[in-house]
Every structure is written in structure tokens, then in C-alpha cells.
Design brief:
Elements: E1 10-14, H1 17-30, E2 34-40, H2 44-56, E3 60-66, E4 81-85, E5 91-95, E6 99-103, H3 105-109, E7 117-121, H4 125-137, E8 142-146, E9 154-156, H5 159-170, E10 176-184, E11 190-201, E12 217-222, E13 225-230, E14 239-248
Parallel strand pairs: 2-3, 3-4, 13-14
Antiparallel strand pairs: 1-7, 2-5, 4-8, 5-6, 6-7, 9-14, 10-11, 10-14, 11-12, 12-13
Helix pairs in contact: 1-2
């Protein structure tokens, strides 16, 4: 079990703003590879240290700051990708697709609120909340900051991180080579390919080119043959990647 999260496969209720903020900070502190967060601008300073620490240890942090039409001056560095939205929305945080928290907007902004937050740790619930975050809320935000790409070579088992980094490097017009380890989706046979990346499909960074926000794939070329690569659970793409290594070609 994690220090700050609920026990495995557990759902709890948070009833006070102090408890909710403490839980949110704990979830952020324990994140290992990926963190999503929506939070009203008035509460960003409460969690800025935890966000900065997550970015510093290589976590992909996607941050949606709500109830503001202007990016805060100190938003650079606290997230990998930052968007803003002028309306209120639920405060949501997830870490590594496994643990998170959802709270009504007024719970973090009102002095007196009878609302309650849900804190969860569940392998099936986590991806649902992440899908809701990227599918329903992320697209309405306006992008205001994107981090620099990570140094290469880079090996990732989190496919979304690999796609984000490939996107950032491709936009610097740097030719990218890759090693893709995984399986062919049609036959389930193992894959271990050295290749070049010739295309990226994604919806997290503007300009997006995906048909829906959580769509993420790489198009690769190896010996003149072109294949598409997806992450865990891929079935449309040719390859389901378990590990991606990026390097300069």
C-alpha cells in the first residue's frame, strides 16, 4: 500500500478541504511515471512544490488550471503540459493510472461546503478517470506551457510518455530512431524492432492530430516497411509496445 493513498482496491470519502488537499499532495508525492491534475487557480500554490518535485523526477505531469483566463506567472516548470480554462470544473488528480481523487469544484474554493471527495485506489477505476480527464476536460483548455523534451537516449515503459517525448523531439526536426519491444497485435508474437519514427499521432499537445484526445500512436519504418505502434491494450495498431527506446537517428 502507498503511504498517502487508500489501501489497494479501495474507495474512501474525503469530507474536509484540508483532508482533500493533504490527500492530493500525497498522491502527487507518490507518483512514479504519470500525473494528471485539474485544480482551481486559487489552490495551485498549495500543490506547486509537489508538482515541481514530480517534474524534476521525470513524471509526465499534465495540468489543467481552472477558473482563470490568464496563465499564472509561476506556471512554467510545475508541469510537463499546462492548460487553462476559465470555468470551474471538478478537481481531479490521478497518479500512474492506479490511485486518485475527484472533488467537486466548490470543495476547494468555498469556505463552507457540504460536498465530499472520492479517493480511490483501483486498477480498473484509474484509467476511467484518466480517460474522463483527457476526453471531457483537457480538450476545452487552452495550452499555455509545454516543457522541453527529455534528453536522449530515453527508454520508457509508459507509452504516453514515449509519444509525448517523440512529439517534442520531432518538432525540433530531429530525426528519431527507436527500438520497439512488445508484440504483434494480430498474432501475439513478440516484437523487437530497430526502426525510424516517421509519424506521431497524439492529442495532448497542440496542434493535436488525433481523432480523439487519448489516441496515441507512433508510425515507424524498418527496412522500408511501415507499421503503427500503440500502447497497452492496442488492437487497432500493428504493434502493442511494452518498451520504447528513443534516440537520435
Amino acid at each position: 500500500n502507498r503511504r498517502h493513498g487508500p489501501a489497494s482496491d479501495q474507495v474512501e470519502v474525503g469530507k474536509s478541504r484540508e483532508t482533500v488537499l493533504k490527500r492530493m499532495k500525497g498522491i502527487m508525492a507518490d507518483s512514479e511515471s504519470e500525473l494528471t491534475l485539474s485544480i482551481p487557480i486559487g489552490r495551485l500554490s498549495d500543490v506547486a512544490d509537489e508538482l515541481q518535485a514530480a517534474v524534476d523526477r521525470g513524471v509526465l505531469v499534465t495540468l489543467l488550471i481552472t477558473e482563470t483566463d490568464e496563465p499564472p506567472e509561476d506556471c512554467c516548470g510545475v508541469a510537463s503540459i499546462t492548460r487553462i480554462w476559465g470555468e470551474p470544473m471538478p478537481a481531479m488528480v490521478t497518479a500512474d493510472d492506479r490511485v486518485g481523487l475527484v472533488a467537486p469544484a466548490e470543495m476547494l474554493t468555498s469556505t463552507h461546503s457540504d460536498t465530499q471527495a472520492i479517493v480511490f485506489s483501483h486498477p480498473q477505476l484509474g484509467p476511467v478517470i484518466v480517460g474522463s480527464f483527457f476526453g471531457n476536460y483537457w480538450p476545452v483548455g487552452t495550452e499555455v506551457a509545454v516543457s522541453e523534451p527529455a534528453s536522449l537516449p530515453l527508454t520508457e515503459t509508459n507509452f504516453r510518455i514515449a509519444v509525448v517525448e517523440a512529439t517534442l523531439w520531432c518538432r525540433t526536426e530531429t530525426p528519431l530512431a527507436a527500438r520497439i519491444e512488445g508484440r504483434w497485435t494480430e498474432t501475439n508474437e513478440p516484437v523487437d524492432l530497430e526502426c525510424r519514427i516517421v509519424g506521431v499521432t497524439q492529442g495532448l499537445i497542440e496542434p493535436a492530430n488525433s481523432q480523439f484526445p487519448i489516441e496515441a500512436s507512433l508510425t515507424i519504418d524498418t527496412d522500408g516497411e511501415t507499421y503503427t505502434v500503440g500502447g497497452e491494450g492496442a488492437f487497432i495498431e500493428d504493434i502493442e509496445a511494452e518498451r520504447v527506446t528513443l534516440n537520435k537517428a
